[in-house]
Design a protein that fits this description.
The chain is built from four helices and nine strands, in the order E-E-E-H-E-E-E-H-E-H-E-H-E. It is of the alpha+beta class and 188 residues long. It has a single domain (15-187), classed as 3-Layer(aba) Sandwich (Aminopeptidase). Strand 4 and strand 5 (90-97) form a beta hairpin. The relative contact order is 0.16.
């Protein structure tokens, strides 16, 4: 049997997850959001219907990236909270939480933006970010997280695995912004 030395075993580094400052929003360009999508959810008559559809989602274009950075900067300026996941200095994940309560009871806070870089998915980083969103939302006295989720199977299944359900109390403004998304909530 060959000698298997420690040089053959790669230790998985612990990623640094922390609140980011406004100047670090530009590191969003480090994240590779690309993915192959084979199934999409549709909300039809209060039920989720899964359909086979194929999309090759590319990395962000420069225009899309600039738009997201502008939106995140504005969210930050309004008092939103943004967390980044870092592998050394490289941002490999991001989550943004809004600052204003929404809903008729003003008891929900929006999980506004979340992405994990392609090569860093399935490592528990998304769960850590959702857990941080829960913790921050509780500090803000929210009762629920509101999520307007991209309708891909991977995204919706991820949120459901982390406690989200399809909301029965859809936020009109959020729906008008993202009518094709699956609108979900997590009770805190």
């Amino acid at each position: 049997m060959p000698d298997v030395g420690s040089h053959c075993i790669k230790k998985r580094k612990k990623m640094n997850v922390r609140r980011i400052n406004k100047e670090e929003i530009v590191k969003l360009h480090d994240i590779d959001r690309s993915e192959i999508v084979n199934q999409i959810y549709y909300a039809i008559d209060g039920s989720l219907v899964l359909r086979d559809e194929h999309y090759d989602v590319p990395k962000w274009s420069d225009d899309v990236l600039r738009g997201y950075m502008k939106a995140l900067t504005e969210l930050y300026d309004r008092g939103g909270v943004i967390f980044g996941v870092f592998d050394d200095e490289k941002m490999v994940g991001i989550m943004a939480l809004g600052s204003e309560m929404i809903g008729k009871n003003r008891d929900r806070i929006v999980l506004d933006f979340m992405h994990i870089s392609k090569d860093y998915r399935k490592r528990g980083l998304g769960k850590r970010l959702v857990d941080m969103a829960r913790s921050e939302a509780k500090k803000m006295n929210a009762q629920k997280l509101y999520i307007s989720a991209c309708p891909t199977k991977n995204t919706v299944d991820f949120y459901m695995k982390n406690g989200a359900i399809v909301t029965e109390d859809m936020d009109k403004e959020m729906f008008e912004k993202e009518p094709d998304d699956i609108h979900m909530e997590v009770v805190l």
